[in-house]
Amino acid sequence: MLDTKTKELVAIGASVVANCQPCLDYHAEEARKAGASDSEMRDAAGIARMVRKAGAEKMDTYAGERLGEPAPERTAPGACCGSAKREK
Predict the structure, then answer these.
(1) Cα 48 to chain centroid, rounded
(2) Residue-by-residue pLDDT tens, the chain, 88 positions
């Protein structure tokens, strides 16, 4: 089971990915009450931004392929959420 602080940090990330401002406000306050630091909340939001960006890039590529558009250029081919090694 996840403790309350961890659940709220996950909820912060989900709020960022979902672009839900009221959700972020609520879960940030609940995370603070559960003992999360500002640094931990920033980390959760930063990971969420990477996930959102990777998903958007993949959807842009997919849409382009389906609609016959040129594929967008990526700064790090194959990278998803910063987990893949960067090509030199």
Answers:
(1) 2
(2) 999 999 999 999 999 999 999 999 999 999 999 999 999 999 999 999 999 999 999 999 999 999 998 766 655 555 555 554 433 3
In whole angstroms, give the CA distance from residue 39 to residue 41: 5
- For residue 71, give both structure tokens: 């594929």
Does residue 77 lie within any of the structural domains? no
Question: How far is it, in rounded angstroms, from Cα 35 to Cα 4?
Answer: 9
In a domain, residue 78? The reply is no
Q: Is the CA virtual torsion 27, 2, 41, 84 positive or negative?
A: negative
Domain residues for the domain of 55 are: 4-67
Domain count, the chain: 1
